[in-house]
What we know:
single chain
Amino acid sequence: xxxxxxxxxxxxxxxxxxxxxxxxxxxxxxxxxxxxxxxxxxxxxxxxxxxxxxxxxxxxxxxxxxxxxxxxxxxxxxxxxxxxxxxxxxxxxxxxxxxxxxxxxxxxxxxxxxxxxxxxxxxxxxxxxxxxxxxxxxxxxxxxxxxxxxxxxxxxxxxxxxxxxxxxxxxxxxxxxxxxxxxxxxxxxxxxxxxxxxxxxxxxxxxxxxxxxxxxxxxxxxxxxxxxxxxxxxxxxxxxxxxxxxxxxxxxxxxxxxxxxxxxxxxxxxxxxxxxxxxxxxxxxxxxxxxxxxxxxxxxxxxxxxxxxxxxxxxxxxxxxxxxxxxxxxxxx
Length: 333
Ligand code: ADP
């Protein structure tokens, strides 16, 4: 033999590469599946977490926690729903706060009204007992007690009439007698009955009229009552040497009226409550003398101002004086 040829089976390249490919596919498949699970979990948590927090906030609110709010984490649909929920919660909370404040004011009003009415009623009862008992045969004492009784009845009448008027004004049950009136004349008419008292108390009462003739659409009698109440207070709380100014400026439906005094002023705590019915801040002057009053004067002023659709405000600093301003621009429908 000059040579030989050896035949043998070589390496199986095809099945080896097929095995390799299968392994790679298996690893890639597991990897992709794992990735899909992780991504799916993350996405679903991103979707459900805000919905769960929203549900939690709604549940807390349902249980009475009005301060509960849903976190707004995105600007997508869920974020928008959470923001709307929070706006609604905000409104609900402030409505509840208003209702609570009204309820407290009503309670205070009932307590104050009862107290205010009880005083003259108790006085009348004791005058009656005295008239029929110890003073039965004393004409001088009888006359005195009868006069006192008449004064108490008058006070009762004044309080009840004003309360009734206030409720009617509040409930819009009275029709205002509206017409155009000259502002200067209104100021003069309000100040005239108080000039003598101002002079007697050595208080300088000044009137600041609008520069041009100005008409105001109002209920004349009621506006004069409101201005008189403000002037009355000025005279009551000021001391000799003080000044009071009743003024007006502006034109048409936008007249600004004011009553300013250089009296003792009103502290911040009282300022927040002086328009409440029966609320009285200062009941004694600096020298300790009792200042008469009922706490109804300013509520009547406010009732009249609001019935016209106007606005009243007070600016005051203790020791520097007080300024009540009525803006007649229509602000309340
Ligand atoms: P009152 O009958 O007590 O005067 P008002 O309703 O008229 O009742 O006033 C309420 C409170 O406002 C008063 O008790 C007083 O404390 C305060 N007040 C009102 N006007 C003045 C003023 N011009 N200067 C100082 N305090 C004032």
